[in-house]
Design goal:
Chain lengths: 302, 317
């Protein structure tokens, strides 16, 4: 999914899992088996795991201190002795900064989606299940935020809140709640109309257990798949905010911010200046491919 | 049809009001007073009070909103704190530039994306299909601000074919539509077109695949219509949805151009927003976001109505 469109287009109006499949035992093992046979998704998954390990163990892997600069070794090319991937505009080791940069970039890019998944599902499922006035109130509010193009909303919110990691995280989460809530609402409304919900109600099941067993079981899958498709968007947006100076602040290493501070270096060390973007690109494409693989493994119609 | 239009407008109005409330409140979630940015640090309490009264910040929020929206409806978005110029004219000058960029990008993205999508839909599973899927994934995964930098490195720094940044040889004020100006548009527009290209390719491919599976296509082929004749029918059926997606993309690109405009120093709304944020020019920030968001809302409305006009089935959905 794309930056604009993932959040943008009427998000797949009917991503309903084949209801019969969901409750049958071993559904998740089936999904995992299908996923493990998808070479593209598995490769992407390995890439993500490696990126995460790199971020976690950054201090042990990085050959140098990411914040230690040298005025004499500013903007050195890739392969410069002692600097395998060159040196940045302050003479800091690019390789070490790229490794350390993964920590904040992944934190900023990934965290907003699970938080938004919880909030958005809660809102959407409530609206879809309860219906009536509650639905109108929740969904019309969601519509207002949904009416902003995602990049604009993220920039506007973090611009108003002020630069910084926390504010960027809050803005990004707020950007992803409306699209997730919309998907959750539409899936829940569909599931609620199905016969087996009526059957459960007729057989005396309480609202709580209907929601827990019958609704959640059928609804969370499609919402989850949709949410995973937002991670790559979130990565690009998060680094984009830092690129604009609205996210992480210098001298902290972060891929988007590094891309920004190296912008003027495109005339002297173009290869070095482009490196942080390669990392964002790899991460975002890997998340996209895992999400696509998950979508087909779970047989969610998009 | 008239009823449908009326219904759509009635649905959009509350959203538009909600959008204006969000834009209005943006200024009030900012830490500190909106005036701290302009007032000198040693301003007396009396001066602070005076300024607050001048901008109306001393009144309760609903009253402030009422006063603000009343002026907005009349086309007055206030004055920029940094420059003192009216926000309305600043925003509309920027919108013109952004619109030129977004329209060019949408056009490139649509032509390339639709071409790829049609080929991929026709030759499912073939190598064109694989290329198209690859392009769609790349298009939606690439950090476009980085792609912009890479294109600048290749075509401006290394090859020297196109200018790296800016809106024209003499700035954007005296725009004309000759090559001297258009060459400034090429790199940002191509960079931006990658986003709609992937989405449109994906949509068109799905549409063509779906239409080819429908009975009327088999019937057309069965009654002896040539391949080209069938093709024309497929295109005709896919067009409304494809154009709707294109229309929406234009809105996204206009609202989301800030990153690309920053990379290319393109004098559009993104550039204006950037300035507004870093100078803490809140009326300008508020005004430009409001204009962009409302533009997007009404573009959606227009696309919906046009789609319903072309394809009556939409009205019933």
């Amino acid at each position: 999914m794309s930056l604009s469109a993932a959040i943008g287009q009427t998000p797949s109006p009917s991503p309903v899992v084949d209801a019969a499949v969901v409750r049958s035992p071993g559904y998740w093992t089936g999904v995992l088996r299908r996923l493990s046979r998808d070479p593209v998704a598995m490769t992407a998954l390995v890439v993500i795991v490696l990126l995460l390990l790199m971020a976690i163990f950054a201090p042990y892997i990085a050959p140098a201190d990411p914040s230690k600069g040298s005025m004499l070794r500013r903007l050195k090319p890739i392969g410069f002795p002692g600097y395998p991937l060159g040196a940045d505009e302050l003479g800091r080791d690019m390789l070490s900064r790229l490794i350390h940069g993964g920590r904040l970039s992944l934190l900023m890019g990934v965290t907003p989606v699970p938080i938004a998944f919880v909030i958005g599902s809660l809102l959407g499922i409530t609206a879809g299940y309860v219906g009536g006035l509650t639905n109108t109130l929740i969904m019309r509010t969601v519509d207002v935020f949904y009416a902003f193009p995602s990049v604009l909303l993220a920039v506007a919110l973090s611009g108003a809140l002020g630069a910084g990691l926390t504010n960027a995280l809050v803005s990004l989460t707020l950007v992803f709640v409306p699209p997730i809530a919309r998907v959750a609402e539409s899936v829940t409304t569909q599931v609620r109309g199905l016969d087996y919900i009526d059957a459960a109600r007729a057989s005396g099941a309480k609202a709580g257990s209907i929601i827990r067993v019958h609704v959640l079981g059928n609804v969370l899958g499609p919402i989850f798949v949709y949410a995973t498709s937002l991670v790559s968007v979130s990565m690009i947006l998060a680094s984009g905010l830092s690129f604009l100076g609205l996210g992480v602040r210098p001298p902290e290493p972060e891929w988007g911010l590094m891309l920004n501070t190296l912008r003027t270096a495109i005339y002297t060390q173009p290869m070095v200046a482009a490196l942080p973007g390669v990392m964002i690109f790899i991460t975002s494409i890997a998340f996209n491919m895992v999400s696509d693989g998950l979508r087909s493994a779970m047989d969610v119609k998009s | 049809m008239l009823l449908y239009i009326l219904k759509r407008i009635l649905y959009v109005l509350p959203v538009a009001i909600g959008v204006s409330i969000v834009c209005f409140l943006l200024v009030h979630i900012t830490p500190g007073d909106p005036l701290t940015a302009v007032l000198p640090v040693d301003a007396t309490l009396e001066l602070q009070q005076q300024m607050r009264a001048l901008y109306g910040f001393d009144k309760p929020l609903p009253v402030q909103y009422g006063l603000w929206i009343w002026r907005v409806v009349q086309g007055d978005l206030g004055a920029s704190i940094a420059t003192g110029r009216p926000v309305t004219s600043e925003v509309f000058n920027a919108v013109k530039n952004s619109l030129a960029l977004a329209a060019a990008a949408t056009l490139i993205g649509f032509v390339a994306g639709a071409g790829l999508g049609i080929l991929a839909g026709y030759f499912r599973g073939g190598w064109v299909d694989r290329i198209a899927s690859f392009v769609s994934v790349l298009g939606v995964s690439v950090p476009h601000y980085w792609l912009g930098m890479v294109l600048v490195i290749i075509f401006s720094v290394q090859l020297g074919w196109l200018p790296a940044t800016g809106g024209g040889p003499q700035g954007s004020a005296s725009r004309s539509w000759d090559w001297d100006y258009l060459r400034f548009l090429v790199l940002p527009a191509v960079t931006m077109s990658v986003i709609p290209m992937g989405i449109i390719a994906r949509t068109v491919k799905a549409l063509v695949g779906e239409i080819l599976n429908q009975e009327f296509v088999h019937a057309l082929a069965a009654k002896g219509l040539t391949e080209r004749g069938v093709f024309r029918h497929v295109i005709k059926n896919a067009a409304p949805t494809a154009f709707a997606v294109m229309g929406l993309q234009l809105g996204y690109l206009l609202g989301g151009s800030i990153l690309i405009e920053t990379v290319f120093s393109w004098p559009g709304t993104g550039f204006l927003l950037n300035a507004a944020i870093f100078q803490r020019d809140l009326p300008l920030l508020q005004g430009s976001i409001l204009v962009l968001a409302l533009f997007f809302v009404f573009l959606n409305l227009t696309v919906d109505i046009l789609q319903a006009a072309i394809d009556p089935r939409v009205q019933r959905a």
